[in-house]
Amino acid sequence: MVILVLTLLPLSLMAQEQEVADTHSKKTRSASPVFTGFSGGMMLHAGYLFSDDPTKVFSNTGLGSYDYVKGLPKAGFCYGFGGALRVHLINHIHLGAEGHVSHMPLMNTGSNVRTGWGGALCDFYTDWGKVRPMIGMTVGGGTMKRLFVPADSLGYVPVETSVGDTTNYNASYVKTPFFFMDPYVGLEIDLGNHMAILIRIDYMLPFGRTSSGLTNLGTDVKWSNFMTPSGPRLYIGMMFGRLKRR
User: Fold this and answer.
1) Residues 4-27: pLDDT tens digits?
2) Long-range pairs for 122-126 at CB < 8 Å and ≥24 separation?
């Protein structure tokens, strides 16, 4: 009997300790807050955007002859800035909104593509010490403003007007809206309880139906044309707020 009691006593104590630990864990889980922080900040970005056709870059049929148009740029570097506001949920989710403006100069003539966009973001993150990797997506809309200024008028065919005169068009401006999905991956590096460096890479993808009513193109085009050129962007910024995991 003594041997049996001495054998069962440690097991009983272990079971009791486990029960206490489980009860404490349940209380801790039930007491864990859903809202665990907030943050916001500014980001600079740079990227490389491209298209498969120069006519999609400028979205205008009045660019000139085919031989001239095929020599126009269809890719280039862009840069810009923006910002984001986020709330942190259960120490693993960011919900919020962001907006950015991007500029892509072309041809050294004043030609450029300016893009402005914004939307709602959601990403999932985890803690690796002072580093938080994340993966997420932003969904929203924006506008592209495309300005084409030729180096000279050689590519333009004179257009005869109703009064018999001819005019050389020396510039083109087109504004097109778009909707997008923007998947991204990134890292946040803690610099303290209230400041972090955010590094992120994204690739904006268009979505929508086929339509030809938003530009002066003579043929049907897809919504994807309205967000051309597109490509990867690298963002670097500072985030401020209650960032450290509780």
Assistant:
1) 334 444 444 454 455 545 555 555
2) 122/93, 122/94, 122/95, 123/93, 123/94, 123/184, 123/186, 124/92, 124/93, 124/94, 125/92, 125/93, 125/94, 125/188, 126/92
